[in-house]
Amino acid sequence: MSTLHYVTTNPGKVREAEEYLGADAVTQFDFDYTEIQADELGPIAAHGAREAYREVGEPVLVDDAGLFVEALGGFPGPYSSYVEDTVGVDRVWNLASDEEERRAYFRCTLAYCDGAEFDASPDPIDRDDRVAAAAAGVEEDEPADDAEPGTLPVKLFEGAVPGTMVAPRGDGGFGYDPIFEHDGTTLAEMDTERKNAISHRGRALEKFGEWFAER
């Protein structure tokens, strides 16, 4: 089987992937793919996976993640990294603190591409940057959609962690971890093992790992 390339500059993501997929199953691939602008994570990750697959020619895994605050209409969402760099975590908390309802989610979408078609399954398949519900209720010999010939299909796997926006607490983690509380503890107050056990990326990796084992 070809090597599975996790496209990231963050070795921590690769270590987390190894926990779910095995130490010999995945390798880091440092590739600066084009990050398109979109209001959802799926199209961003899918575009990156297609571009990365065309670069390396072997199976690739790309992720995109973000913090979604319900009372702020899902902001910062797919723009989380940009907002962190330009607006800052403290200002995001200031916005959320003005709201009575402070529910939020960390979400991650993994996109897998290996240049081949996929069997129907309950997980979504993205074709040409459109997320299509893959196969529930569709007959096996019926096409999942009308994608143009040559389009690279991408398999998407999603994970999410529910939480609450709170005033900054904790010295660990990074990014929005100090203002995101899960089960009474901010992510910045958790050690790495506990954080990885409940992480949105880990939940997406678990789904992917179960499917990939049958691939």
TrEMBL record:
InterPro entries: ITPase-like_fam, RdgB/HAM1
GO molecular function: hydrolase activity
SUPFAM superfamilies per the UniProt record, alphabetical: ITPase-like
Keywords: Hydrolase
PANTHER family: INOSINE TRIPHOSPHATE PYROPHOSPHATASE (PTHR11067:SF9), INOSINE TRIPHOSPHATE PYROPHOSPHATASE/HAM1 PROTEIN (PTHR11067)
Family the UniProt entry places it in: Belongs to the HAM1 NTPase family.
Protein name: Non-canonical purine NTP pyrophosphatase
Species this protein is from: Halobium salinum
